[in-house]
Write a structure and sequence with these properties.
heterodimer, A: alpha+beta, B: alpha+beta, 4-stranded mixed β-sheet, two-stranded antiparallel ribbon, elongated
């Protein structure tokens, strides 16, 4: 039996984070704004990043009576094939985050049901589930062949993004509601948000895609969860 | 062991088949059959029930073939047949790649002008395999943002023009 590869967690560079997100994450982009980028290596081979940022809205922490500098959002987990559990990589990344930003009290993250995600990795890591997020007032814009949040339009493309967003023929949509998970970073915060906990949502069954002419075969669910494990958010 | 051509319409898929095939994968198998021909016959039981090769049969349908090559395994018990349908798929998954050797082979095929998309790797994975993939070294804490600090927000007073940090106001 092969030995488990040696896992190493350390800071990641901008280039490494960008490569991981554009290669291994379904969004194919690195989030904008101030970021803490934690990398993972197995047997010295780079396997991806866990990225924390301010999140898409400045009101992210308002309802927990925290200011913007007291919490952050886990904005990406972009990993290629790996052996260590995602929950372990994520937990070690949060330790790194706490070391670098000791004043943080909580991490928020979201799982998008529209992408078939229910937050299995957060459940595995004992995060607190608080239900679906609010829809919010910001729109998403269809630009460069993908849906982009208003904040990213502004930060990534500046006034050009603003102009595009204001064009009448630009497709827009309201962001979908996402499963929200919280990870308190100290005992006080843990006690404060414990009453918000709701039962974990279950994974929706996916219909099997095939074309065999047998009804019994056609309606069997897919059992693959690997893809979700690799790119949960 | 005899290979016999059988009509696709006579073959019966196993209703409890636990292996799934997406349209994309069936298209990949179809492309492979077109390029390499039939390299792996369908395994059937004594009553034309498919034991192994559901994906290949779906690909043959996509290619509008009428017949496929089959091998009949009529001596299996019901339990053996049920088990082999799983084992045939599962055992192959236990093999590993020697990535260094794979990179050499892929680059050879590339040099020969072979269409690498026929091999079944996704394009990103293929690119990483061909190039060996970039290997990033750890960075420093200084390269990270301080999420527990707010950046100063300088605002100029509309009356006196004096600038001040909005965080201090």
């Amino acid at each position: 039996m092969q030995d488990k590869p040696k896992l190493k967690i350390d800071w990641a560079s901008h280039d490494a984070a960008k490569y991981a997100c554009t290669t291994w994450h379904y969004s194919k982009c690195l989030p904008v704004g101030k970021l803490v980028k934690v990398g993972a290596w197995e047997n010295s081979k780079f396997i991806g990043v866990v990225i924390f940022g301010r999140g898409a809205t400045y009101r992210l922490l308002e309802k927990y009576e925290l200011s913007q500098d007291q919490g952050c959002e886990l904005v990406r987990i972009a990993l290629t094939k790996h052996t260590a559990p995602v929950t372990k990589i994520m937990a070690l990344a949060i330790k790194f985050l706490s070391k670098s930003c000791p004043e943080l009290k909580m991490v928020v993250s979201f799982a998008d049901p529209a992408q078939g995600h229910h937050g299995g990795i957060y459940q595995g890591g004992n995060w607190i589930y608080t239900g679906l997020s609010d829809q919010g007032g910001s729109l998403e814009y269809f630009y460069k062949n993908k849906w982009t949040h208003a904040r990213s339009m502004k930060e990534a493309w500046g006034s050009v993004g603003k102009d595009i967003a204001q064009q009448k023929n630009t497709l827009t949509r309201k962001p979908s509601r996402k499963h929200r998970y919280l990870m308190p970073l100290d005992k006080e915060m843990s006690a404060k948000i414990a009453p918000l906990a709701k039962p974990y949502p279950k994974r929706e069954k996916q219909a099997m895609v095939d074309s065999l002419d047998t009804a019994a075969v056609r309606h069997r669910p897919s059992r693959s969860i690997l893809i979700e494990e690799l790119s949960e958010i | 062991m005899q290979i016999v051509q059988r009509k696709i319409e006579d073959l019966i898929p196993y209703v409890n088949n636990s292996r799934t095939h997406s349209d994309e994968q069936v298209a990949q198998i179809a492309a492979s059959i077109k390029e390499f021909g039939w390299t792996n016959p369908i395994l059937v039981d004594g009553a034309n029930g498919i034991i192994a090769g559901h994906g290949r049969v779906m690909a043959a349908r996509k290619l509008k073939y009428k017949e496929v090559p089959t091998i009949e395994l009529k001596d299996m018990t019901e339990t053996q047949r049920k088990a082999y349908i799983i084992a045939d798929n599962r055992l192959a998954l236990n093999a590993k790649w020697d990535n260094e050797m794979l990179t050499i082979e892929l680059n050879d095929l590339l040099a020969d002008g072979f269409a690498l998309e026929l091999l079944g790797f996704d394009p990103t994975e293929m690119q990483t395999l061909i190039n060996g993939g970039p290997d990033f070294e750890p960075a420093t804490e200084d390269e990270q943002g301080k999420l527990d600090e707010l950046d100063p927000k300088w605002i100029a007073c509309p009356h006196c023009g004096k600038e001040f940090d909005a965080r201090q106001a």
